[in-house]
Amino acid sequence: xxxxxxxxxxxxxxxxxxxxxxxxxxxxxxxxxxxxxxxxxxxxxxxxxxxxxxxxxxxxxxxxxxxxxxxxxxxxxxxxxxxxxxxxxxxxxxxxxxxxxxxxxxxxxxxxxxxxxxxxxxxxxxxxxxxxxxxxxxxxxxxxxxxxxxxxxxxxxxxxxxxxxxxxxxxxxxxxxxxxxxxxxxxxxxxxxxxxxxxxxxxxxxxxxxxxxxxxxxxxxxxxxxxxxxxxxxxxxxxxxxxxxxxxxxxxxxxxxxxxxxxxxxxxxxxxxxxxxxxxxxxxxxxxxxxxxxxxxxxxxxxxxxxxxxxxxxxxxxxxxxxxxxxxxxxxxxxxxxxxxxxxxxxxxxxxxxxxxxxxxxxxxxxxxxxx
Length: 372
Fold this sequence. Notes:
Blueprint: H1 22-43, H2 46-61, H3 64-70, H4 73-82, H5 88-102, H6 106-114, H7 117-125, H8 131-143, H9 149-153, H10 157-167, H11 170-188, H12 201-210, H13 216-228, H14 232-240, H15 244-254, H16 257-273, H17 275-283, H18 288-297, H19 300-314, H20 325-328, H21 336-371
Helix pairs in contact: 1-2, 1-4, 2-3, 2-5, 4-5, 5-8, 7-8, 8-11, 10-11, 11-13, 12-13, 13-16, 15-16, 15-18, 16-17, 16-19, 18-19, 18-21
Organism: Dendrobium catenatum
Domain U-box: 192-320
Region (Disordered): 1-28
């Protein structure tokens, strides 16, 4: 009886059936690999477990299939246990492995939260070592999943993220902004779990001032400032920061649709709360052209906010007309769109004139240097 020299299946050295194609071969090897790592994490000493965690990080970092394959209790639970170790290196290696396992995988994010990672990450956020910024990145990643937001918001992470926002590195502050923005859904849903301290205003305005106003990061920053503007403490902090209102007005003029919506809402919140106090502060920064553009080109909310704010800026506290001739001259009828277009053309013209002057000055300076 002649045997098939290339059988489709047969026992291999692991006692598992041999696959019939390369894809099945890779999947089988990965299953074996996961089992081997699980045994190492369960039965080895600290140094070996640390190396295993590092190896897992390398595997899952560049492999979506690897992230899915390794997200099993036999791997996750020992790594979570390592987060509680007194050994700094063990905690760091386990955290990085879990973080890479969660990236771009919603199911893994949920698995990690259900495995008890959040309280351990919150503990790290309050530490005085480098792990707190890694924990910030992990909170950012896990909070991107809708099902995790309420658990993280209720964990006490918010004030610790604000501390990172105040005193962390640039990357730590950026990560804290994104994590807080992810959790802001809890505020919008009417829960009190996301309580932002007014202490967050200064670092948020600083980051907004230094960022491109049309960027996604600026939209996240203005969203958080909008939440802060709902409280008297937040409004006072925004107005007391040097250049704070100007930064918001610049966002109204230069921001994306979402950024401008948040920015005009901040100004409206200020003016509604105390028109006597904030009206002139806002007018001094020249917001009128940007507000009129939003009545035509902004989102529906931004358009409504702009109309309401313009009315508050138009009249003084005695309901008399403002002394501002520019506002008095505006017709709130069907000419609003035409007015906005004229304002835009004027802004473009002035910008071009300024650029031409700069080029002329630069050319003159270059010519003077050449002759000397």
